[in-house]
Every structure is written in structure tokens, then in C-alpha cells.
């Protein structure tokens, strides 16, 4: 029986069972839980310490975070950390239960960029920095790799998430070179004192099905556990009937158990094990041909397994020892037409740290060893093994009740690129209803063959990397937030300067042989600057969120040797959400997102994209512990292939057969389903 048949059978049986079952009237209260065991001690300190030194604030700001390493409350942390809370996660899970792309894409200053139109791969760009610079973490662990493969974003369900933490700008001072552009930390739900769980079934008008489940329970007085599982199917879709698959088909199975242990002497242990298998299909449909008269089927089989742990122990009242580690292996079998690529990504981390606090100072110091490797059976010349031992330290100091600072630095000894120093400093001025922050940081990134421009084509047309140096960036930002009553406003100004950014360069025809492109360092600085505007307002059961992002970018074009904007980077983008919600009854929401024009590269149909709107409607009715939902996406039926073909007239030197995705490519889509919750 196929995954699709399992989903259809499960959906039918569940619907029948729901109508026959007695509906519980128990209301499932949503709670925001952001901390894994290592933060328990720090959180108790900050609850007490900051209540003594700061005014009481709206509960929306009383959220403690882990990404800053010290468990501070969001509004009291000198490091700006944006939070996607549990309420937003639950809403976005109804729109796209299969992956977290929509969850992060609808956050201001965050853009999910498709890197492979054939397979649907995508990465996350923070404030228009390249997606390869974004470190994706799960409970503070790099479970998806030091450099997360672009397909990884599309394989992580939001089912078990409690919150998401986002740091924009270089975070290399605490997380190493993979966090040159920022960090996205996915925080999982923790088991409560009683059994709880949920099952979600979803169907889409584009022949997609999702079945996800989450269960959590205490096992003993000191041990609790949770498990998340999902089965997902998508049928291939050729929306413009040109023989090329516009929406890749896939079958995917995901499972992740988690275990939590608390000892009698202040010890805490968190352990997680994850596995994922996916079979994905794109390219030409069977029997269909490209302009050169050949077929080009793209296939990708992915198997990922990972394990991670966090152990901490409080000692001498004011100190905590923490030990964390993770290991990940991802095996991929690619088919690019007649070319087969079989490869493996491996990553591991072991880190030990000690943290402490006094009246005005919080600090952490630690050491870590990060390893990342790539092995290809087909193109072994691209194999690499990076071993990176390092030390790091961070100090947060409260100068007064209103002024605090954070200084952090990391020294890495990279096996390929030598000694690297990554500093960061942040300042916070927090009078009454204002929070004004400034941040400045530096970091580095170790180049690999897997830049955005090569993701859709594989390695067959790429020259082996030679004389490529590390990429370095300086990031700075200043932001101001004002909260009064139910109104929150924020303005951020940011700038990033990247030195030696790696880019894809087309080889001269006389030198190509069987290779068409190579990766080189840009000889000129790449500059990204802009501003973000955010407005949030709540009136009774209605909440409004509005955001605007302006971006001004400049990079050297290697062909014309002149400065041009970065491709696929809109100068103007904006969004607005209006949501009515009553817990235990239902919700109704409308969203509108605007994406401005973008510079395009290697596109024979146009050099600049068109601006477009994305509109959506979401509705949910809750009866006891059962919720029925329906969601309509892309109400204007925007689709890039309505304007230009996706397939190129001839294969590009890199090996790709498509233009980049600069717009929507899925058209109007409706999904609907049911969520059943258990426990209290």
C-alpha cells in the first residue's frame, strides 16, 4: 500500500470515527513553552532577577528565549530575538502541515527562496542575506546539519513546535561560521504533567495529503516523553500543461521521539532521535520532451537520521554546567536526467559550557568541536571534511535598570580556513515602554559547492573548487520598539557587508570541455542595507499585524563588471494579517502579502520580474476537542508560468533547464482537514 493510500484510508476512517464518537467539551488551552531542560535553572534566576529590576510588561513580552544562551526574557535581552509564538504556529500548521516554509516565510524580514524549481527545494534568507548563511537549529542543536541542505526546510513539519526564535545578523560569535546571516531555532513542545496529543489530517486541491500526530506524557516521576510522526504525499502537478512538473511529487515519512529526565540533584537530560525518508519526483513527465528533444526526469531519494542530547546540572547555587551534542547523516540519491549522483552529508557537534550569574552579570563560557563532511560516490573531487574546534564566551551586563549590554566572541580553528575570530556586541536601552537596541557583529562562512545557483543542477557541470577563500561579513542593526497597551510598533535599520562572497561563474566556451561553471570569490564587496517596519494591534478577539521591508542591495556582476542589485531580492515587500480568534470556538483570518519587482539573472524572457500579491483566507471551527479547518491560498491565482515559460529554450551552462522562481508557481490552492486533540 502506498503512502497516498494510507493517507486516504486514514482520513476516511478518522472522519467516520469522529461523527460516531462523543465529542469532549474539554477546552485545550494553548501554553507557550520555550525551554528545554538546560534552561530550567537559568529561567528561575531570570524570573526573579528581572522582576526586581524591571517594570511589569504585557504578557506578550514575557517570553524567555534560548537562542541568546542565557535564558533572558525577550524584552530584557540586549540581543534582538524575534519570536513566533505557539498561537501563530498553530495557525500556520493549518495552512501547511507538511513543512515550516510558510511558518517562517510570513515573518517580517524573512524570505523563503526556491532554489530548485524542479524539486521544490528552498532556503531561508534573513534580511536578504544568502540562504546558505542561515543556521537552522532544533532546540539549540544542529540536527539538520551545519549547513542545512536546501531540501531540509521542506521536510520539517511544524507539528511539535512550541515557539520559533529568530536572530537576524551575524550570530557566529555563539554558533560558528554556519550562522553568518543569523539563526532560526525551532523549540519543541515539552510534555506536561498529564497525557496530551493531537492528530491532524489534511487534504489539498493539488492532490496533496498530510497525516501528522503528536503525543506527550509523563512516564515516571522523573521521566517524560513525546513523539512526533508524519506521513505526507504530493502528486506531481503540471499546471501549464507544458510537460514539465511545476509542483514536485513526493512521499515522505517522518518520526521523532523525545525524552526528558530530571534528577533529584538538579540534573536535567534531554534526548531526541529523528528519522526521515522521502522520495521526490520532478522534471519532465513520462513521455514528454525538452526543447532539445530529450527527456529530463529529476529524482531525489533522501534518508536522514539524527540524534541529539542536552545535559545540564546546577551547582553552587549560581552556576550551571551544560553538555550538548548531536550527530546527523543524510544520504541522497539524485537523478538529473541520465546523470546519477549518490552522496552523503554528515555533521556532528559536541559542546561543553559553564554559565553563571550575579546581581548585574550573566555569563557563559564554553568550548565546542563541530565537524561537517560531504562524500560523493559520483564526483569525489568535491569531497570535503571540515573539523572546527572553538571556544566562545558571552557576558551580559546590566549597567542600570534601563541600560544593559552583551558582548560575545568566538575563536574557531578551521581545518581548511585557519583561525577565525567572530565578535558581536549589543546594547539595550529600555525606558518605560521603549526598547532601543544596537548590534554589531562579524563572522565567517566556509565555502562548499552547495551555493544557491548550483542546487537545481547538481555537480556534473561544476569545476572542482580551487583557490576559493572563506566568506566574511560585517552586520550592524539598530531597532526601536514601542509598546503601549495593545499596540506594538517597531522600526529596524540594518546593513550587511560581505567580503569574498562565492558566486557561480560561467566558463568561456573554449575552456568548458564537459564543465560549464565554476565557483569563485567576488572581487568586490556585496552590500545589503534596508529597514523593517512592524505594527501589531489587538482589539478584543481581533489581532492585526502589518510589516514592511525595504532592501537596497549591490554586488559586482562578474559578466558586465558593474555593480547591480542582488538577483531575486525585492526592493519593497509588505504584509498584513487580520485574525479573529476565540479559543475553544474558532478563528477566521485574512492575509495579504506584496512582493515588489526583482532583478533576474540568466532569464531569457525578462530581466526584471513583475510585482505580485498573495492573498489568503483561513477559517476554523472548534467543537470540544475537534477542530475543522479550511484554508484558501493564492486567491488571485498568481502563477509565474502564466507570464513566461519556466523551461529554458536551451540547457544553461550550469546544467539547469529552468529559470529561477521569482513568483508563485502553485496557483490557487485550497486545503482542508480536521485536528483532534487529546488530554488537557
From TrEMBL:
Localization of this protein: Cell outer membrane
Q: Residue spans with biased composition (Basic and acidic residues)? A: 40-60
Report the leader peptide range. Answer: 1-25
A Gene Ontology cellular-component term: cell outer membrane
Q: Which UniProt keywords apply?
A: Cell outer membrane, Membrane, Receptor, Signal, TonB box, Transmembrane, Transmembrane beta strand, Transport
Which residue ranges does the record annotate as region Disordered?
Answer: 38-60
Annotated InterPro entries:
Beta-barrel_TonB, Beta-barrel_TonB_sf, Plug_dom, Plug_dom_sf, TonB-dep_rcpt-like
TonB-dependent receptor-like beta-barrel domain mapped to chain residues: 258-635
According to UniProt, the name of this protein is: Outer membrane receptor for ferrienterochelin and colicins
Amino acid at each position: 500500500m502506498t503512502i497516498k493510500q494510507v493517507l486516504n484510508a486514514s482520513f476516511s476512517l478518522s472522519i467516520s470515527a469522529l461523527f460516531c464518537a462523543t465529542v469532549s467539551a474539554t477546552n485545550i488551552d494553548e501554553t507557550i513553552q520555550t525551554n528545554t531542560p538546560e534552561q530550567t535553572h537559568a529561567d528561575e534566576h531570570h524570573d526573579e532577577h528581572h522582576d526586581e529590576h524591571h517594570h511589569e510588561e504585557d504578557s506578550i513580552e514575557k517570553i524567555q528565549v534560548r537562542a541568546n544562551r542565557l535564558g533572558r526574557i525577550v524584552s530584557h535581552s540586549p540581543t534582538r530575538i524575534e519570536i513566533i509564538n505557539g498561537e501563530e504556529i498553530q495557525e500556520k500548521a493549518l495552512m501547511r502541515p507538511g513543512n515550516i516554509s510558510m511558518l517562517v516565510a510570513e515573518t517580517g524580514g524573512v524570505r523563503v527562496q526556491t532554489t530548485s524549481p524542479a524539486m521544490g527545494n528552498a532556503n531561508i534568507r534573513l534580511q536578504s542575506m544568502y540562504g546558505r548563511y542561515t543556521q537552522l537549529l532544533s532546540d539549540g542543536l544542529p540536527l539538520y546539519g551545519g549547513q542545512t541542505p536546501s531540501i531540509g526546510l521542506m521536510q520539517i513539519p511544524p507539528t511539535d513546535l512550541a515557539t520559533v526564535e529568530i536572530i537576524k545578523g551575524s550570530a557566529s560569535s555563539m554558533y560558528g561560521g554556519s550562522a553568518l546571516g543569523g539563526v532560526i531555532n525551532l523549540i519543541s513542545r515539552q510534555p506536561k504533567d498529564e497525557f496530551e496529543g493531537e492528530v491532524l489530517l489534511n487534504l489539498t486541491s493539488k492532490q496533496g495529503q498530510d497525516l501528522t500526530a503528536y503525543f506527550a506524557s509523563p512516564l515516571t516521576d522523573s521521566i517524560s516523553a513525546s513523539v512526533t510522526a508524519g506521513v505526507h504525499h504530493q502528486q506531481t502537478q503540471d499546471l501549464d500543461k507544458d510537460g514539465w512538473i511545476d509542483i514536485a511529487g513526493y512521499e515522505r515519512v517522518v518520526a521523532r521521539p523525545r525524552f526528558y529526565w530530571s534528577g533529584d540533584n538538579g540534573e536535567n537530560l534531554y534526548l531526541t532521535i529523528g528519522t526521515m525518508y522521502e522520495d521526490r519526483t520532478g522534471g519532465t513527465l513520462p513521455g514528454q520532451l525538452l526543447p532539445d528533444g530529450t527527456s529530463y526526469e529529476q529524482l531525489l531519494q533522501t534518508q536522514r537520521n539524527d540524534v541529539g542530547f542536552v545535559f545540564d546540572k546546577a551547582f553552587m547555587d549560581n552556576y550551571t554546567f551544560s553538555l550538548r551534542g548531536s550527530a546527523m547523516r543524510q544520504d541522497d540519491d539524485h537523478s538529473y536526467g541520465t546523470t546519477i549522483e549518490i552522496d552523503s552529508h554528515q555533521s556532528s557537534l559536541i559542546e561543553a559550557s559553564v554559565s553563571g550569574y550575579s546581581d548585574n552579570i550573566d555569563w557563559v563560557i564554553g568550548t565546542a568541536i563541530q565537524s561537517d563532511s560531504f562524500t560523493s560516490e559520483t564526483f569525489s573531487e568535491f569531497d570535503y571534511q571540515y573539523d572546527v574546534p572553538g571556544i566562545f564566551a558571552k557576558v551580559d551586563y546590566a549597567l542600570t535598570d534601563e541600560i544593559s549590554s552583551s558582548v560575545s566572541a568566538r575563536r574557531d580553528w578551521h581545518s581548511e580556513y585557519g583561525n577565525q575570530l567572530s565578535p558581536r556586541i549589543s546594547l539595550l536601552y529600555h525606558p518605560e515602554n521603549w526598547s532601543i537596541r544596537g548590534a554589531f557583529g562579524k563572522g565567517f562562512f566556509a565555502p562548499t559547492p552547495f551555493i544557491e545557483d548550483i542546487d537545481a543542477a547538481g555537480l556534473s557541470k561544476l569545476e572542482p573548487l580551487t583557490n576559493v577563500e572563506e566568506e566574511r561579513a560585517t552586520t550592524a542593526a539598530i531597532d526601536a520598539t514601542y509598546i503601549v497597551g495593545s499596540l506594538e510598533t517597531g522600526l529596524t535599520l540594518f546593513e550587511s557587508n560581505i567580503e569574498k562572497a562565492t558566486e557561480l561563474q560561467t566558463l568561456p566556451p573554449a575552456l568548458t570541455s564537459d564543465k560549464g561553471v565554476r565557483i569563485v570569490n567576488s572581487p568586490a564587496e556585496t552590500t545589503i542595507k534596508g529597514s523593517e517596519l512592524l505594527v501589531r494591534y489587538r482589539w478584543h478577539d481581533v489581532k492585526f499585524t502589518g510589516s514592511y521591508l525595504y532592501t537596497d542591495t549591490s554586488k559586482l556582476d562578474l559578466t558586465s563588471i558593474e555593480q547591480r542589485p542582488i538577483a531575486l531580492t525585492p526592493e519593497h515587500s509588505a504584509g498584513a494579517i487580520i485574525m479573529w480568534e476565540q479559543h475553544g470556538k474558532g478563528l477566521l483570518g485574512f492575509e495579504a502579502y506584496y512582493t515588489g519587482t526583482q532583478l533576474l539573472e540568466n532569464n531569457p524572457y525578462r530581466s526584471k520580474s513583475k510585482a505580485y500579491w498573495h492573498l489568503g483566507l483561513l477559517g476554523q471551527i472548534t467543537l470540544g476537542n475537534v477542530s475543522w479547518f479550511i484554508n484558501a491560498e493564492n486567491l488571485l491565482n498568481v502563477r509565474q508560468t502564466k507570464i513566461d515559460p519556466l523551461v529554458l529554450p536551451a540547457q544553461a551552462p550550469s546544467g539547469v533547464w529552468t529559470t529561477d522562481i521569482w513568483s508563485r508557481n502553485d496557483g490557487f490552492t485550497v486545503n482542508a482537514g480536521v485536528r483532534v486533540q487529546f488530554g488537557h
